[in-house]
Amino acid sequence: MINIKDFSKIDIRVGTIIKAEPLEKAKNPAYHLEIDFGILGIKHSSAQITERYGVDELIGRQIIAIVNFPPKQIAGVKSEVLVMGANDDNKNVILLEPQKNISNGAKVG
Fold first, then answer.
1. Which of 47, 54, 51, 58 is nearest to 85 (CA)?
2. Fewest CB within 10 angstroms: 1, 60, 106, 107, which?
3. Rounded to the nearest 5 degrees, what angle is found at the Cα of 87, between the Cα atoms of 84 and 89?
4. Cβ of 83: how many Cβ atoms within 10 Å?
């Protein structure tokens, strides 16, 4: 179990996907995403969401991401944020997203 102090260390923000392209070097099918987090700037992420989302339907979509994990090199991409989602019955990721438009960089908590 964690306590509220542990949870408060996680910086969860809203961002808008501004670019998405297949991540060709990935071992498992994935996209390279560029996400606008407002005051935090543009961040990059690798996301294994190809089963449920096409590139065209990702552009302009607001998502929820953890922005304070250390960057990680994934298939040649410096993944700076962890895009959040839930697995459906087939283990495909369904993105978490706000119900209404909100400012990029808005803090979730």
1. 47
2. 1
3. 165
4. 23
Residue type, 52: R
Centre a 10 Å sphere on the Cβ of residue 58 and count the other Cβ atoms it contains. 20
Answer for the pair 89, 50: CB distance below 8 angstroms, yes or no.
Answer: no
Task: For strands 82-83 and 77-79, give the pairing.
Answer: unpaired
CA-to-CA distance for 45 and 80, rounded, in angstroms? 6
Using a cut of 0.85, tell me whether the model's pTM lies above it.
yes
> pLDDT tens digits, residue range 19-50?
999 999 899 999 999 999 999 999 999 999 99
Three-state DSSP class for residue 4: helix
Mean pLDDT for 46-61 is: 95
